[in-house]
Structures are given as structure tokens and as C-alpha cells.
Design the sequence.
């Protein structure tokens, strides 16, 4: 009886290892970079996840930054803003960065975040990027005023850029004004991924390892507050890993039972 129980415990523990992951969820409680914490994790522990950086407007008299508050459809969230005090297109830019605490995303892991938009000036960008060690590995966003010939991207809504594509159309979803949607990226293989953003979906390739995320409001101008909340990193265990772990536990149990039998 004790040996059977030990076998069951061994099997359960090995399966647990196979499905273990650096799962993490975050809910904003303050502006990014606020000390000692800008949010709480899945256990409601205070955490500081984001680092905020800003750049001045083109004329030097414009503002950019972040604040915490309510947005239509998204509720309380932190928001990046770019405000042009002295002319269209002169607003500064704001960026928030985070590094995944559990290390680079593994095959089967998904990172997602909720995203909400207001008006964006023509030609200016808002969106987010997944980062590797040297820069942006995958970017999803929109140019204000799209579709509009003359911009790098001339599609019908949101674009993506990765190792194999530049400013490719993410799908047919139009500009979502003050109506949040979720953006999720799943690592499907070595250097490959799939993505869903609202009703858009696509797949592609990336270089390096995905170690973090940056969200950006790049000189988007008056009324361009862009809200973010509910960052999540989660894992779906790979079937092959699960099977190998279970098989290993079964062999351990069989070996122990054999040793227990009289010779």
C-alpha cells in the first residue's frame, strides 16, 4: 500500500514538473514605474513591473508621460499620453518596458495584455513590441490616420512587423476607438509564433529570445492616451513533455514493484 502510494506521488510530482511554468498575471494599481509597486500579481502581492521613459516633443515644449485612471471599456488602468502644446505632431513620446521575470518565453507560452486607444495623429504610432536582447523582435500597432498612402504601412488597420515581415496587415479589424481588445502572442516553435489581437490573427517568425515587452505612444498627439492593463504570461504544457514525464514516473513505479516481488 505504501509503495503504491509512493508511486502515485511520484507520478503526480513528475507531471507537476512537466506542467510547471513561470505563469504570471498583473493588474495595474498605479502608473508604470511607481515605487514601491505599480500593480499586484495573481496572489495580490504588490509588484513593480514596468519602467517608464519619455522623450520630449519636437519643439521641446510638449509633454509625454503616464498616469493611472479610468478609461472607457477598460476600467482602471495605466495610460501613456503624448500632449502637443504647440502644434500638431509635436507631442513627446512615452514608453513602458518590462522584462519577463521567469526568463525568455518558452515554446507553448503565451503573453497577453489588454489595450485601449483614443485618437492618434496621422502618421504617428501606438502599440507594443516583444523584445529580444537587441531590440524589437515583434511589433504590433497602428499609424494614426490609416489607411493613408504615403505611410510605411498602407493597410486597412493594424500592422505587425517581425523577422519575416515589415508593416504587414494584421487583419481587417478597423480602428478601435475607446474599445479595448486583448493582444496575445504564443510561441509555437523555435523562432515562430502565432498572434491574436481582437478579431485579427496572424503568425510569423522572430529572431532571438523573447525576454520582455515594450508598449509605446510615439508622439501621437492630443487625446492620444493609450491604456494598458492585465498583463499575463501563461503556459500550455507541451503534450510531448507531459507524456515523457508520465512515462518516466511509470517506469519508476514498475521498477519499485519489481523489486518488491519475491524472487
Sequence:
Amino acid at each position: 500500500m505504501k509503495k503504491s502510494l509512493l508511486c502515485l506521488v511520484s507520478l503526480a510530482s513528475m507531471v507537476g514538473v512537466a506542467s510547471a511554468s513561470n505563469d504570471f498575471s498583473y493588474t495595474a494599481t498605479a502608473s508604470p514605474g511607481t515605487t514601491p509597486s505599480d500593480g499586484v500579481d495573481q496572489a495580490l502581492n504588490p509588484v513593480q513591473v514596468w519602467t517608464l521613459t519619455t522623450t520630449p516633443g519636437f519643439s521641446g515644449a510638449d509633454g509625454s508621460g503616464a498616469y493611472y485612471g479610468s478609461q472607457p471599456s477598460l476600467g482602471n488602468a495605466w495610460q501613456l499620453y503624448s500632449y502637443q502644446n504647440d502644434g500638431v505632431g509635436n507631442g513627446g513620446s512615452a514608453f513602458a518596458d518590462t522584462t519577463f521575470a521567469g526568463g525568455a518565453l518558452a515554446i507553448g507560452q503565451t503573453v497577453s495584455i489588454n489595450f485601449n486607444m483614443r485618437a492618434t495623429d496621422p502618421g504617428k504610432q501606438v502599440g507594443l513590441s516583444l523584445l529580444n536582447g537587441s531590440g524589437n523582435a515583434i511589433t504590433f500597432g497602428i499609424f494614426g490616420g490609416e489607411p493613408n498612402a504615403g505611410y510605411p504601412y498602407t493597410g486597412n488597420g493594424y500592422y505587425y512587423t517581425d523577422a519575416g515581415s515589415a508593416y504587414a496587415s494584421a487583419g481587417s479589424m478597423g480602428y478601435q476607438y475607446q474599445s479595448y481588445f486583448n493582444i496575445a502572442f504564443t510561441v509555437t516553435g523555435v523562432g515562430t509564433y502565432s498572434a491574436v489581437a481582437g478579431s485579427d490573427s496572424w503568425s510569423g517568425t522572430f529572431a532571438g529570445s523573447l525576454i520582455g515587452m515594450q508598449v509605446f505612444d510615439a508622439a501621437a498627439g492630443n487625446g492620444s492616451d493609450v491604456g494598458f492593463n492585465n498583463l499575463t504570461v501563461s503556459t500550455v504544457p507541451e503534450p510531448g513533455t507531459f507524456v515523457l514525464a508520465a512515462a518516466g514516473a511509470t517506469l519508476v513505479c514498475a521498477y519499485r514493484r519489481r523489486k518488491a516481488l519475491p524472487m
Remarks:
- Residues 1-21, 237-263 have pLDDT under 50 and may be disordered.
- The chain has two domains: 1-21+240-263, 23-236.
- Residues 1-21+240-263 form one domain.
